[in-house]
Specification:
single chain; 8-stranded parallel barrel; 52% helix
């Protein structure tokens, strides 16, 4: 099983030093991580928005073990928002947050995460943009949805993420589509047991299409999180059948993955948002993405070869 091995490596200082020193590492990091500091990413934000793209910014770092680290994560997002303000991009540059970074897994973590994320959502609203709550493993979702519901009382534009491979997601999508929220649909990347999730790729794809149809036919704002050309085409067809205008949904893809497709969709008039991660914990972020789904290793390697 590769997952546990990669996850152990993500926590090893020795492995961090070895990977960081490897000749290919900088090329990989430069390709998929926009930088380590806010100063590094501001030029990236300007470049991408200048190309007609939109962004959702993720400050990486998920291994939070105490409230001080959770507060530091909050402050990192507040610094980002402060730097976004003079750019006057509005919703063209939003934020994505993982509640684990805000202390969700600590003692009293639900209340702590809500207390830490609220000022980020408030600050984002003040500059005309918003925040999307990323989905993590299935054990965290009830807390995430409760925080999402609480935030939407004052900030109805707050978004959330749902994962097609979980059995519960079709019911979650019906609830969210009915009340008009912003919802990003992804396939799902965490290692989940067969008791809660589809494990077969084709079953996951079929679930993705069913859920996306629900979102398109609902009253919310669907965000199609996929690099799969077939699902992108299906998303366009479902939007057309639902009578949605081209600005009533959007596509989202990772920074550094299928960049030519980003530009193609934007050139056709679609809202195309790039999920852009940055921060000093790029090693942990990258290794945890591989641990969640070791097939990502082949995906990233293939992207390095194709350069698009």
């Amino acid at each position: 099983m590769l997952g546990p091995v990669i996850l152990a490596a993500s926590r090893s200082d020795r492995m961090r030093r070895l990977v960081s020193a490897a000749p290919m590492t900088k090329q990989v990091v430069d390709r998929f991580i926009a930088g380590e500091r806010v100063d590094d990413v501001v030029p990236v934000i300007r470049e991408l928005t200048g190309q007609g793209l939109e962004l959702t910014m993720d400050v990486v770092g998920e291994d939070i073990t105490n409230p001080t680290q959770a507060a530091a994560a909050r402050d990192a997002y507040l610094e980002l928002i402060d730097r976004l303000k003079p750019l006057e991009l509005g919703t063209r540059a939003e934020m994505s947050v993982k509640l684990s970074m805000f202390g969700q897994a600590l003692d009293g973590g639900h209340d702590l995460a809500l207390a830490n994320v609220r000022p980020v959502v408030e600050a984002a609203a003040e500059i005309g943009t918003t925040v999307t709550l990323d989905a993590e493993d299935h054990t965290t979702l009830d807390s995430m949805f409760a925080i999402h519901e609480e935030l939407r009382k004052d900030f109805p534009q707050t978004g959330c993420v749902i994962q097609a491979y979980l059995f519960r997601t079709e019911a979650d999508a019906r609830r969210l589509a009915a009340n008009g929220s912003r919802v990003r649909l992804v396939k799902g990347a965490y290692k989940e047991p067969g008791s809660v999730a589809y494990l077969d790729k084709h079953e996951i794809d079929r679930a993705y299409v069913r859920i996306l149809r629900t979102l398109m036919e609902g009253e919310g704002y669907p965000m199609i999180g996929s690099h799969d050309p077939r699902l992108i085409a299906i998303g366009q067809e479902l939007a057309h059948r639902a009578g949605r205008k081209i600005d009533e949904y959007e596509f989202q893809m990772l920074y550094g993955i299928r960049t030519e497709e980003h530009l193609r969709l934007a050139a056709e008039g679609h809202r195309m948002r790039v999920y852009t991660a940055y921060g000093t914990d790029w090693y942990g972020y990258f290794m945890r993405r591989l641990a969640e789904k070791p097939a990502n290793l082949r995906f990233f390697a293939r992207s390095m070869i194709t350069k698009g």
